[in-house]
């Protein structure tokens, strides 16, 4: 046969008879996967998991993208199976079955247009699908048989497709690569395509019969709610999303939710935060706000006109959306126009033996509610954990919640006796530094330690000179008279738990 020169305009997809076939089952824009790629391709743990999951489901990488798109997009559109490349049609039927599960709809409601939630939902659901798929393939003989056949057909299809692609890239047909051979290969490819489609249908039936999709979504949704609630209740939902921050948040939240004591602290801190939030909102509303500068963010109502104008042209729209996703739009910065700037909070927490149990839960709950206020108001926060001496001084950055430090605050407990002088002296040392010179002190204890007259006198002299406030939160039911000699007010446990005493909460949570 004469040599045949390939037309340079002949696309490999035309040669394979699969023009415009997609590897993804959902319609999307390139921008939709920007955040996904940043997390899933740059997190070592997730990257390793993806490689392992591909050993179980060959096409898992694209399946994982589809799960993310299904969760993130407000109105996801699933492509028809005929639009999907043959190798990825099993993904398509899996995605279609997920959408039939009620819990998946609930998961979507929690994730839609929320980057962090969508990443978390994808991470959990992808893992659960693989786990259940692997278990079933080992225990179900019929599935094992079908997967063996599917794997054989899949590999044969990929091999023939690769051969045809090589024919195309070589451009020149030799006697060995005759037109007849190409037509035979294309015909065989079509035959295997039909086989794969049948394999996919058989596998789908077994997966449905085993309830794999429901089991996977149901477990993933429960885990999603548990982790999400932990992240929210501990103030870790700060909007920051990088591979490092995502991994740290997930790691700490899993530790936090596994400890009974910490779960109790979280629940009680949530109630305090709710009260604090209402008081802060009311105070802000009463005082009003004024523009004080420019900062980066993604709140559309605050975005500068110079940024919004990017939406006017098709060529600059993508730049606007990218800056929006990354919270890098220039926006007005506001401040309360009747409220002077507030200083840091120094929070001393008693971890002596008498605080063990419910009293520790109460003390840590108040501390974490105050930390939440400080972070929201961009105020530095220091936690001094003490018993017979100061054991830990944890400094929190006013611009971000640090999960590892939060975990340390929630879980550290020493026991032993009680010494008030050391944590109060440490507080004064901090106030004497430039960074903390405008601080106020919150002192949380059960009120069982003496203060000598000399210390009281020296402390009050510094207090008068530095003009700071000190509030004692006494988690017992009796007043500690020694602390009344140095604090501005002492709040008892019963006052914090009495819903009718709003004034007490206002003293503490509007500090």
Automatic annotation (TrEMBL):
InterPro entries: VWF_A, vWFA_dom_sf. Residues 345-488 form the VWFA domain. GO terms for cellular component: cytosol. SUPFAM superfamilies: vWA-like. Residues 126-160 form a coiled coil. Keywords: Coiled coil. Transmembrane segments: none annotated. Gene3D superfamilies: von Willebrand factor, type A domain (3.40.50.410). This is von willebrand factor type A domain-containing protein.
